[in-house]
Amino acid sequence: MENPKLDKSSIGHEHQVAPVDQQYALANSNLEDLIQKGRLPLSDATLTERDRRVATFDTDPNSGVSWENVRQELFGE
Description:
- By secondary structure, the chain is mainly α.
- Helix content is 60%, strand content 0%.
- It is built from four helices and no strands.
- The model has no long low-confidence stretch (mean pLDDT 80).
């Protein structure tokens, strides 16, 4: 079965303007679903680190670095 390519333009407009906390919740839910179904096998160490980062974000959502800053640093965009 081939997976269709998805991007923001293929998703309804209402999903593009969802608040960040809702986008985060959806992304986290999708990640959990993939892990539980064994479609994204992760080591215990990786899961522990992910849990630590999620807890940090939940405590202080401003503690991380924005994707825009990461992209600029990595790709010079």
